[in-house]
Amino acid sequence: MSAMWVATLVSSLICYILKYLGYAIPESFLANPRVQRINTLIPIVLLSALVGVQAITNKSEIVFDQRIAGVAVAAIALKFKAPFPVVIFSAAITSAAIYNWL
Amino acid sequence: MARVSLSKAQVFRDSMSVALPVGTYGIAFGAAAVANGFSVIQASLFSILLFSGASQFAVVGVMGAGGSALSAITTGSLLGFRNGLYSMRMKPILNVQGIRKIFAAHITIDESTGVAISQEPRGEAAMRYGFWATGIGVFIFWNLFTLLGAFGAQALGNPSAWGLDAAVPAAFLGLVWPRLIDKQSKLIAISAVAMALILTPVAPAGVPIIATVLLAILFGWKPKA
Question: What whole-number distance in Å separates Cα of residue A76 and Cα of residue A25?
């Protein structure tokens, strides 16, 4: 089985188990305030890291290209409270324009 | 009776006003999955089986950046952890058993939990209805739009020529943006970007992303001053 398939199926299984656990276990350490605080921060660090890696790296190198301009425009759109599809489209259009014509 | 159905209609409207726009983000996911080398079927399976947007984007994002399946799964699972906390929150309200519990768990995500909690002033019946309506609504729209995005990206070809390579980080930015509510969270976000970029040349792909969990532990260890 290819790595793609492993990633697809195993991550789906684990994420389902995580959802189910909350209903299955009676009381839990998850109610601990420290775990709650850390859990609130986990999406912030992972999603932020993904923004950086997806926008400014290629394999194991730091690469500055058209993607940064796209993400910068997305940030401006978010600043002005644009809806999600507008954010994505404005990033894509900016990046594609630079890629194709500059 | 009239009052009950009136409030049900209101809850339904609240649920759909969340489910439809959120569901349309599925286009971005389907496109991102295909742009990062997944097939249309795999993209679709993510939305059917995993069904949690941030985790889905993370798995395809890490794999697309050259990461191993293990780092992709770890990142996706860490992001899926919060759904377990939502389940704990929803458990006493839904009070589900058997097959309903299996389905309830599957649709326990940001949006279904969020709408359910927002219905608290209308009572537990409204919370339950909001949970199911939103969860099922997001599931349907999310899957339809995933297919649309995946087929669309497949038809387009070179991801860079269509800006899909920028759409993926923009999607992550859109997902993290509403969570950056104060100075501390912004500082943490910037630290995470810096840490991931510093580690990128020296650590195997995927690891720089997972490593930022250390920042979450560090900053979350003690209550905010």
Answer: 43
pLDDT digits (tens, 9 = 90+) for A61-95: 999 999 999 999 999 999 999 988 899 999 999 99
Measured between alpha carbons, how far is A96 from B26 in angstroms, rounded to an integer? 21
Gap between the Cα atoms of A88 and A82, Å rounded: 10
Residue of B nearest to A21 (CA): B84
Q: What angle do CA B215, A64, A100 make, to 5 degrees?
A: 135
A57 forms beta bridges with A62
pTM: 0.84
CA B143 to chain centre: 13
> What's the CA gap between B56 and A83, in Å, rounded?
20
Nearest by CB: B165 against A48, A67, A88: A67
H/E element, B9: helix B2-24
Going from N- to C-terminal start, the domains of chain B cover 2-178, 180-225
β-bridge partners, A61: A58
The larger pLDDT score, comparing residue A1 to residue A15, is at: A15
Tokens read off for A83? 């809806």
Nearest to A16 among B89, B106, B215 (CB): B106
